[in-house]
Amino acid sequence: ISDKDKKDWENFLSKNETLSDKDLKFSERNVPKIISFDLHGFSLDEANEKVKSLIINSYKKGVNKLIIVTGKGLHSKNEKDPYISKDLGILKYSVPEFIKSNKELMSIINEIKDATVEDGGSGAFYIHLKKNLQNKFW
Q: For the residues of 35-83, what is the DSSP string, one character each?
């Protein structure tokens, strides 16, 4: 070790400075930017609550995009009940409507759009979240 290195080390120790934890910064950057979640098997109320929680938590963690898989409603039991609309009773239509009607959720969402075939096509949709500049929400 050179005399200059020794002197630099002594100066550092005498000032009681701390170094930032590089591992912590690295782990914060490893937040997945895309999260996919499958709603098959959820009731409408369960799906809405799960999606709401997922959106809020993803926003807090800095996730950019969510892929929500609702299914196409092909196996829905709504067809057996004439009093339930085949279109509005399934998650495919109801979950995006729930999100769009929630002002708090929409305040952190940039865009909701249909998924590509690779991500589920008409049985899925994307939620593009805004950047969380404050790392705080609710």
A: EEEE-TT--HHHHHHHHHHHHHHHHHHT--EEEEE---STT-GGGG-TT
- Strand-pair partners of 112: 127
Put simply, whether the predicted model's pTM sits higher than 0.85 gets the answer no
Q: Are 48 and 95 in contact (CB under 8 A)?
A: yes
Query: In a structure prediction context, what are the per-residue pLDDT tens digits for the chain, which is 138 residues long?
Result: 899 999 888 887 888 767 766 666 555 555 568 999 999 888 889 999 999 999 999 999 889 999 999 987 655 555 555 444 444 447 888 999 999 999 999 999 999 999 999 988 889 999 999 988 775 444
Could you tell me if 31 and 65 are in contact, meaning their C-beta atoms sit under 8 angstroms apart?
no
* C-alpha to C-alpha distance for 127 and 99, rounded to whole angstroms: 10
Report the distance separating Cα 24 and Cα 69, nearest Å: 32
Token digits of residue 42 = 């959820």
